[in-house]
Amino acid sequence: MATLIPDGLIVFPAIDLKNGQVVRLAEGDMNRATVYGDDPAAQAMIFADQGAQYLHVVDLDGAFAGASVNGDAVRAIVERFPGHVQLGGGIRNRDSVERWFDLGVSRVVIGTAALEDPEFVRGVARDFPGGIVVAVDARDGMVATKGWADVSTTSTVDLARRFEDAGVAALLFTDVGRDGLLKGCNIEATVDLARAVAIPVIASGGVAGISDIHVLSLHAKDGIEGVITGRALYDGRLDLAAAFAVAAAAA
User: Fold this and answer.
1) Residue 1 in domain
2) Which of 55, 157, 165, 222 is at 20 to 30 A from 110, Cα to Cα?
3) Residue 137 designated active-site
4) Is the Cβ–Cβ distance between 81 and 55 less than 8 Å?
């Protein structure tokens, strides 16, 4: 496990995995997947060649199955990508956390288990300092779990506050209703969450272009640590080098 040391706002290019392919979903719907490539490790190296030092990788099949499904693809990415890999999707027990850290992942993202088994999250956050990110996935302000298929009765702020003293590295906030739609990031809700808790927040869901990166960078002082972008990169709406330049200005 390597510690992330951000310089300004971190821009995480996203690689979402479904059936071993690079895809993007619309609103988290597995039936609305657009395939962008068959070689995830090669895509990781494209991002590396463009200057990426961080990647956000999601095993989408694993998120629904509750265990790793695209493990071979993840391992190939970790072996080839020279920077930090943040991994989510189906990580719901200590064995999987330890396995991914042993294989070189820098951070793991825990979503469903954060709601269902908070003591598990507290335990691994204590034992792997700097390595645990809690996913706060929102649908109309309430926490969504199990690959966003279920919506709980817990608010996003309530979930986040449960981990303020747990030592988690960051919260990953995603507005599920915007994810993959290029509607623009829900900046208001992201900033509100960052201001409500003493944990750095990573923005995700709906990034449409450089304006989202610019506005989020202005809120770095409010606790916004980074931003994840996927479809905007793959569709050519966001230039990664320009995003890095804007993000670095927040340092």
Assistant:
1) no
2) 222
3) yes
4) yes
